[in-house]
Amino acid sequence: MSPRPRSAITQPARKVLLTGFDAFGGASINPSGLAVKALHGRQIAGHRVVAAQLPTVFGESLQALRALLARHQPALVICVGQAGERGALSLERVAINVNDAPLADNADAQPVDTPVVPGAPVAYFSSLPIKAMLATLQREGIAAEVSQTAGTFVCNHVFFGLMHELNQRQALRHTRGGFVHVPWLPKQGTPSMALDEVVRGLSLAVRCALQAQQDASLGAGASH
Ligand code: PCA
Fold first, then answer.
1. What is the reported pTM?
2. Ligand 1 pocket mutation pick from 154, 156, 157, 198 by most atoms within 8 angstroms of CB
3. Is residue 3 part of a domain?
4. Cα of 8 from ligand 1 centre, angstroms
5. Is 119 strand, coil or helix?
6. What angle do CA 97, 94, 86 make, to 5 degrees?
7. With a 6 A CB cut-off, is 155 part of the ligand 1 pocket?
8. What is the CATH number of the domain that holds 24?
9. 3-42 confidence digits (pLDDT tens)
């Protein structure tokens, strides 16, 4: 077979990877998993969204994320988790190298004061343009805030593992990544945010993260 002319080869769309989590701590739902699933397959700013659900389990969640990164080589990664008792989309600024679980994960593990990655730096800043994302969300009337802690449970574990991969892997050195916490759904408690609003907010956040060149915050350039 003769080779196809170059012009006939269409480049695959670059991808955005969004991850959510399964339900944990005795709950039956997790809005993060539901919200990213709703965005799976969407085209945003010339990129195709690939969504995946991670298990709320130390170790296993990060292994699954690493496999997704290797498979999709995304241009942008936003990991999403639920933070009950927060009333806004929380744009996380910093991931820390510690597991200190306040409750058991879905495999019944509860690590206390262990490193996420032994020997890795103490912390990484998000490489998302969090201040630009904040301004976009607020302009669109969606409750949003910059958060200074993603906690010390599985969300921070995944966030730290993500930032470490982006910093270590040559193939991912241009990939932007970070973490967003979302509130409960109305049926889970107060404060809350409707699923449609969470989905709209994440979609705006993705567009902004793909398009913003620079960010006013320290986090934007500090980790790369
Ligand atoms: N929230 C938890 C883990 C899974 C999730 O959705 C957290 O904030 O660590």
1. 0.92
2. 154
3. no
4. 45
5. coil
6. 110
7. yes
8. 3.40.630.20
9. 555 545 666 779 999 999 999 999 999 999 999 999 999 9
